[in-house]
Amino acid sequence: MGWLARKRIDWMERAIDGLQRASLSRGAASLPAHLLTGIDGERAAFFHLRRKGYTVVARRWSAGNLPGDIDLIAWHGPMLCFIEVKTRTAHDLTPAEAAIDLHKRNILRRLARRYMRQLPGDAAPPVRFDVISVYLVSGQEKEITHYENYFGWSERRRDWE
Length: 161
Known about the structure:
Blueprint: H1 3-25, H2 33-51, E1 55-61, E2 70-76, E3 79-88, H3 102-117, E4 127-135, E5 143-151
Parallel strand pairs: 3-4
Antiparallel strand pairs: 1-2, 2-3, 4-5
Helix pairs in contact: 1-2
């Protein structure tokens, strides 16, 4: 990605941040604080992925009749990525990405299967499940960490479990 394309994404992110601040100052903040924090983190992750050359095709995708949603769905070349974003406003003892337990992983797998059924063509693309942790600590620069292939279609014993 060239310099001009990155600058364009930076400008777009600043413009959207400014528009959100303006709407919140007019009393549009009817959502609880933790949901607003999550939305801010998802937006930061969206622009982070764009800077890395991903093509984001869905935000907060849900199947309608299944519980849960997928925060971001993006293509990275031929790879289809289902991305869960975890946002925190402070560094706790456990990292943000540790909040993705077996139950959440199973929900994401089920939703990913449903999403893939609606794709055109007979062959399924290669798929990856990623996690992005976003720390929005007051007075500090955003901290974004992208964990590619954080978990797969099936469970294997991981070091942290």
